[in-house]
Amino acid sequence: MMTVLSYALLIMLMLSSVVLIMLVLLHKGKGGGLSSMFGGGMSSMASGSSVAEKNLTRITIAIAVIWFASIVAYGLLMQALL
């Protein structure tokens, strides 16, 4: 029997998962990996500034913490309900 809290945690988990995937894909590639194999290794002058990259990293870390907390909370709630 699922409660309103479990549905809220599940929705928060799904939303944070989608946002986290999008934020990770927005990061600039560091080169040498799969991104450079497909032409992403070329650096251009039109790429974002370092301030924007730092802010993107901070937002990504914050969403990752929310994602992790929602997984732990959902797991503990499901364990308590069983």
TrEMBL record:
Bilayer topology annotation: Multi-pass membrane protein
Keywords: Cell membrane, Membrane, Protein transport, Translocation, Transmembrane, Transmembrane helix, Transport
Gene Ontology molecular functions: protein-transporting ATPase activity
The keyword Transmembrane appears for this protein: yes
Compartment annotation: Cell membrane
Family according to the record: Belongs to the SecG family.
Protein name, per record: Protein-export membrane protein SecG
Lineage, highest ranks first: Bacteria, Bacillati, Actinomycetota, Actinomycetes, Glycomycetales
